[in-house]
Amino acid sequence: MIDVILCDDHALIRRGIRDTLADAPDIRVVGEAGDYGELRSLMRTTSCDVLVLDINLPGRSGLDALHALKDEGSPVKVLIVSMYPEDQYAIRALRGGAFGYVNKGGEPRQIVDAVRTVAQGRKYVTPEIAQMLVESLTAPTLETPHQKLSDRELQTLVMIASGKRLADIAEELTLSPKTVSVYRARVLEKLQLANNSELTVYAIRNGLVGA
Predict the structure, then answer these.
(1) How far apart, in Å, are the Cα atoms of 196 and each of 72, 161, 165?
(2) How many CB atoms lie within 10 A of CB 91?
(3) pLDDT tens-digit map of 79-103
(4) HTH luxR-type domain location, by residue (predicted)?
Protein backbone atom coordinates (compact mmCIF):
# COMPACT_ATOMS: atom_id res chain seq x y z
CA MET A 1 0.00 0.00 0.00
CA ILE A 2 1.26 3.46 -0.96
CA ASP A 3 0.59 6.02 1.79
CA VAL A 4 0.07 9.57 0.50
CA ILE A 5 -0.14 13.01 2.11
CA LEU A 6 -1.81 15.83 0.16
CA CYS A 7 -0.77 19.47 0.55
CA ASP A 8 -2.79 22.12 -1.29
CA ASP A 9 -4.37 25.29 0.04
CA HIS A 10 -7.62 24.69 -1.83
CA ALA A 11 -9.88 22.16 -0.10
CA LEU A 12 -11.78 21.41 -3.32
CA ILE A 13 -8.55 20.57 -5.14
CA ARG A 14 -7.49 18.27 -2.30
CA ARG A 15 -10.88 16.57 -2.40
CA GLY A 16 -10.61 16.03 -6.14
CA ILE A 17 -7.15 14.49 -5.85
CA ARG A 18 -8.21 12.40 -2.84
CA ASP A 19 -11.25 11.07 -4.72
CA THR A 20 -9.10 10.25 -7.75
CA LEU A 21 -6.54 8.37 -5.66
CA ALA A 22 -9.31 6.57 -3.75
CA ASP A 23 -10.18 4.66 -6.92
CA ALA A 24 -6.73 3.04 -6.84
CA PRO A 25 -6.73 -0.07 -4.60
CA ASP A 26 -3.02 0.26 -3.80
CA ILE A 27 -3.07 3.94 -2.73
CA ARG A 28 -4.48 5.53 0.43
CA VAL A 29 -4.44 9.15 1.59
CA VAL A 30 -3.28 9.27 5.22
CA GLY A 31 -3.31 13.04 5.76
CA GLU A 32 -3.98 16.48 4.29
CA ALA A 33 -2.52 19.95 4.85
CA GLY A 34 -3.42 23.41 3.57
CA ASP A 35 -0.11 25.21 4.05
CA TYR A 36 3.55 24.75 4.94
CA GLY A 37 2.99 24.93 8.69
CA GLU A 38 0.21 22.35 8.66
CA LEU A 39 2.32 20.10 6.46
CA ARG A 40 5.33 20.20 8.76
CA SER A 41 3.18 19.46 11.80
CA LEU A 42 1.43 16.60 10.02
CA MET A 43 4.66 15.00 8.85
CA ARG A 44 5.98 14.91 12.40
CA THR A 45 3.15 12.56 13.38
CA THR A 46 2.20 10.83 10.13
CA SER A 47 4.53 8.90 7.85
CA CYS A 48 3.97 8.58 4.13
CA ASP A 49 5.63 7.25 1.00
CA VAL A 50 4.61 10.07 -1.34
CA LEU A 51 3.85 13.73 -0.73
CA VAL A 52 1.59 15.29 -3.37
CA LEU A 53 2.55 18.94 -3.11
CA ASP A 54 1.27 22.16 -4.66
CA ILE A 55 3.75 24.95 -5.42
CA ASN A 56 1.51 27.94 -4.73
CA LEU A 57 0.94 27.76 -0.98
CA PRO A 58 0.29 30.76 1.32
CA GLY A 59 3.37 31.88 3.20
CA ARG A 60 6.24 29.53 2.41
CA SER A 61 5.80 27.89 -0.97
CA GLY A 62 5.74 24.26 -1.94
CA LEU A 63 9.25 24.64 -3.31
CA ASP A 64 10.34 25.82 0.15
CA ALA A 65 8.89 22.61 1.59
CA LEU A 66 10.64 20.59 -1.11
CA HIS A 67 14.02 22.14 -0.31
CA ALA A 68 13.50 21.66 3.44
CA LEU A 69 12.73 17.96 3.01
CA LYS A 70 15.76 17.53 0.76
CA ASP A 71 18.05 19.27 3.25
CA GLU A 72 16.76 17.02 6.03
CA GLY A 73 17.40 13.90 3.99
CA SER A 74 13.74 12.89 4.15
CA PRO A 75 12.95 9.59 2.39
CA VAL A 76 9.54 10.89 1.30
CA LYS A 77 9.12 11.09 -2.48
CA VAL A 78 7.63 14.42 -3.59
CA LEU A 79 5.25 14.72 -6.52
CA ILE A 80 4.54 18.31 -7.52
CA VAL A 81 0.99 18.89 -8.75
CA SER A 82 0.60 22.48 -9.89
CA MET A 83 -1.51 24.86 -11.94
CA TYR A 84 1.66 26.33 -13.44
CA PRO A 85 2.67 25.10 -16.93
CA GLU A 86 5.58 22.69 -17.09
CA ASP A 87 7.92 25.20 -18.71
CA GLN A 88 7.70 27.50 -15.69
CA TYR A 89 8.50 25.21 -12.78
CA ALA A 90 9.00 21.57 -13.83
CA ILE A 91 12.77 21.62 -14.36
CA ARG A 92 13.24 23.83 -11.31
CA ALA A 93 11.20 21.41 -9.16
CA LEU A 94 13.02 18.32 -10.44
CA ARG A 95 16.39 19.94 -9.79
CA GLY A 96 15.14 20.80 -6.32
CA GLY A 97 14.55 17.15 -5.51
CA ALA A 98 11.02 16.41 -6.74
CA PHE A 99 10.42 12.97 -8.24
CA GLY A 100 7.74 14.16 -10.61
CA TYR A 101 5.65 17.07 -11.88
CA VAL A 102 2.01 16.93 -12.98
CA ASN A 103 -0.15 19.80 -14.17
CA LYS A 104 -3.54 20.08 -12.46
CA GLY A 105 -5.15 20.47 -15.85
CA GLY A 106 -4.06 16.99 -16.93
CA GLU A 107 -6.04 13.77 -16.90
CA PRO A 108 -6.88 12.51 -13.37
CA ARG A 109 -5.41 9.12 -14.26
CA GLN A 110 -2.06 10.83 -14.69
CA ILE A 111 -1.85 11.56 -10.95
CA VAL A 112 -2.44 7.89 -10.09
CA ASP A 113 0.30 6.79 -12.52
CA ALA A 114 2.63 9.47 -11.18
CA VAL A 115 2.11 8.45 -7.53
CA ARG A 116 2.84 4.81 -8.37
CA THR A 117 5.93 5.74 -10.35
CA VAL A 118 7.54 7.98 -7.74
CA ALA A 119 6.65 5.53 -4.94
CA GLN A 120 8.98 3.10 -6.71
CA GLY A 121 11.77 5.67 -6.59
CA ARG A 122 11.53 6.50 -10.29
CA LYS A 123 11.05 9.90 -11.88
CA TYR A 124 7.72 10.76 -13.46
CA VAL A 125 7.84 13.24 -16.33
CA THR A 126 5.43 14.03 -19.14
CA PRO A 127 6.65 13.98 -22.76
CA GLU A 128 6.77 17.79 -22.64
CA ILE A 129 9.06 17.78 -19.61
CA ALA A 130 11.23 15.05 -21.15
CA GLN A 131 11.70 17.25 -24.21
CA MET A 132 12.68 20.22 -22.04
CA LEU A 133 15.19 18.06 -20.16
CA VAL A 134 16.77 16.95 -23.42
CA GLU A 135 16.97 20.53 -24.65
CA SER A 136 18.53 21.69 -21.37
CA LEU A 137 21.22 19.03 -21.73
CA THR A 138 21.99 19.70 -25.38
CA ALA A 139 21.90 23.50 -25.13
CA PRO A 140 23.07 24.40 -21.61
CA THR A 141 24.43 27.77 -22.70
CA LEU A 142 20.97 29.03 -23.68
CA GLU A 143 19.85 29.61 -20.09
CA THR A 144 17.37 32.47 -19.92
CA PRO A 145 17.77 35.28 -17.35
CA HIS A 146 14.66 34.28 -15.36
CA GLN A 147 16.13 30.84 -14.69
CA LYS A 148 18.57 32.57 -12.35
CA LEU A 149 15.74 33.93 -10.20
CA SER A 150 14.97 32.36 -6.84
CA ASP A 151 11.76 30.35 -6.54
CA ARG A 152 9.96 33.20 -4.79
CA GLU A 153 11.28 35.79 -7.26
CA LEU A 154 9.99 33.74 -10.18
CA GLN A 155 6.63 33.36 -8.46
CA THR A 156 6.47 37.13 -7.95
CA LEU A 157 7.38 37.75 -11.59
CA VAL A 158 4.60 35.48 -12.86
CA MET A 159 1.99 36.99 -10.54
CA ILE A 160 2.86 40.59 -11.44
CA ALA A 161 2.85 39.73 -15.14
CA SER A 162 -0.56 38.12 -14.66
CA GLY A 163 -1.91 41.51 -13.60
CA LYS A 164 -1.98 41.08 -9.84
CA ARG A 165 -1.24 44.07 -7.63
CA LEU A 166 1.50 43.92 -4.99
CA ALA A 167 -1.13 44.06 -2.24
CA ASP A 168 -2.96 41.08 -3.78
CA ILE A 169 0.28 39.14 -4.11
CA ALA A 170 1.20 39.89 -0.51
CA GLU A 171 -2.18 38.65 0.69
CA GLU A 172 -2.09 35.50 -1.43
CA LEU A 173 1.43 34.57 -0.33
CA THR A 174 0.89 35.70 3.27
CA LEU A 175 3.78 38.15 3.02
CA SER A 176 4.04 41.84 3.80
CA PRO A 177 3.70 44.28 0.87
CA LYS A 178 7.22 45.48 1.70
CA THR A 179 8.61 41.98 1.25
CA VAL A 180 6.85 41.58 -2.09
CA SER A 181 8.27 44.96 -3.15
CA VAL A 182 11.75 43.68 -2.34
CA TYR A 183 11.18 40.60 -4.51
CA ARG A 184 9.90 42.82 -7.32
CA ALA A 185 12.98 45.04 -7.08
CA ARG A 186 15.27 42.00 -7.24
CA VAL A 187 13.44 40.69 -10.30
CA LEU A 188 13.73 44.01 -12.11
CA GLU A 189 17.43 44.25 -11.26
CA LYS A 190 18.29 40.69 -12.29
CA LEU A 191 16.37 40.92 -15.55
CA GLN A 192 17.58 44.49 -16.19
CA LEU A 193 14.04 45.81 -16.55
CA ALA A 194 12.69 49.21 -15.56
CA ASN A 195 9.04 48.70 -14.62
CA ASN A 196 6.05 46.35 -14.51
CA SER A 197 5.23 46.94 -18.18
CA GLU A 198 8.65 45.73 -19.29
CA LEU A 199 8.37 42.86 -16.82
CA THR A 200 5.05 41.80 -18.33
CA VAL A 201 6.42 41.95 -21.87
CA TYR A 202 9.38 39.83 -20.80
CA ALA A 203 7.08 37.25 -19.18
CA ILE A 204 4.89 37.00 -22.32
CA ARG A 205 7.88 36.71 -24.68
CA ASN A 206 9.33 33.91 -22.57
CA GLY A 207 6.06 32.01 -22.25
CA LEU A 208 5.71 32.55 -18.50
CA VAL A 209 2.19 33.94 -18.89
CA GLY A 210 -0.31 34.01 -21.71
CA ALA A 211 -0.49 37.00 -24.04
Answers:
(1) 37, 7, 10
(2) 18
(3) 999 887 666 678 888 888 999 999 8
(4) 142-207
Beta-carbon contacts of 19 under 8 Å, excluding residues fewer than 6 positions away, are none
Q: Rounded to an integer, what distance in angstroms lies between the CA atom of residue 39 and that of residue 186? A: 29
CATH topology of domain 145-205: Arc Repressor Mutant, subunit A (1.10.10)
Give the contacts of 3 (CB within 8 A, at least 6 positions apart). 28, 30, 47, 48, 49, 50
Q: For residues 101 and 82, is the Cβ–Cβ distance under 8 A?
A: yes
C-alpha 82/C-alpha 55 separation (Å) is 6
pTM of the model: 0.73
Boundaries of every domain in the chain:
2-138, 145-205
Q: Tell me which CATH code domain 2-138 carries.
A: 3.40.50.2300
20 near 28, Cβ under 8 Å? Answer: no
